[in-house]
Amino acid sequence: MFLPANGSAARYEHTIKRPVDASGVGLHYGVAVNLRLAPAAAGQGVVFVRTDLDDFSIRASWRHVAKVSFATSLMRQSVLLSTTEHLLSSLRALGVDNVRIEIDQLEVPILDGSALPWADLLREAGMRKQRRHRRYLRVIRPVEVSDGEKRISIEPAQEFRVVCETRYPHPLVGPQRMELTVTPQAYLEAIAPARTFGFVQDLDQLRDQGLIRGASLENAVCFGTDSVLNEGGLRFADEPCRHKLLDLIGDLALLGYPLLGRVVASRAGHAMHVALVDRIMHDPSCYEIVTLDQLEAAAGAPAA
Length: 304
Known about the structure:
Layout: E1 12-16, E2 20-25, E3 32-39, E4 46-50, E5 56-59, E6 65-67, E7 73-76, E8 79-81, H1 85-93, E9 99-103, H2 116-125, E10 127-133, E11 136-139, E12 143-147, E13 150-155, E14 160-168, E15 174-181, H3 184-190, E16 197-199, H4 203-208, E17 221-223, H5 239-252, E18 259-266, H6 270-281, E19 287-290, H7 292-299
Parallel strand pairs: 4-9, 11-18, 14-18, 16-17
Antiparallel strand pairs: 1-10, 2-3, 3-9, 4-5, 6-7, 7-8, 11-19, 12-13, 13-18, 14-15
Helix pairs in contact: 1-2, 1-5, 5-6
């Protein structure tokens, strides 16, 4: 079972019960990839292990962010790991604190372009509560990053709440907005199925940049001039906005802690998401690391 939005289970760290495997192709590099999720000890966090490079490890941390162009990549000592955001999104939203991710290539497989296959894999693996109290990053004063019309901010809140606003100049997309309190159930129903997407007029340029070598209509939504090219169309009328929210959750996971705060992202992408994470982590005055017990003691009442 996945964690509830609150209650005793949210007080403790969790890992998975048993190893599970996935394989597929990388979205941008187009390479075949094998990946295994394995249980990890309390306090270890999320750690990628390049089994093709003598088990070289890279922690999923803001300290190791390398590139944020069309995907979020990590790097340690010149060893790269690309397109981490979908897997990290599902792990964070579904309450997996500690996991070893063994991978034999430089890119996490894209699967169907959403986080739903990762959620299904975690359901197969099961959840195991650990003895260590879960620590949360609680925002205590607002932080904002902006770049022209792009903006992302975070303000104090007693829950993890996200707002995503997008605006694409396409007749089937246009302005979209979604606001959601991130709980396992809400994520599974409203966010996990939303797929990555692109526009047919941008494909040649992306390929010229060495990107989307593994892209197909099996793992991405493609908007033509006036239609959706995928058989079956969209999963949600606002699927692009929902997917951007999915990405946002994955990039915020690089904080290394579950988040208590309200995030508003307007026309933001991976670069802006990571810029906010970096701004937060370089200013300890804007946050505190707390357990739910500490929050309850401070408030004099049970924490939400």
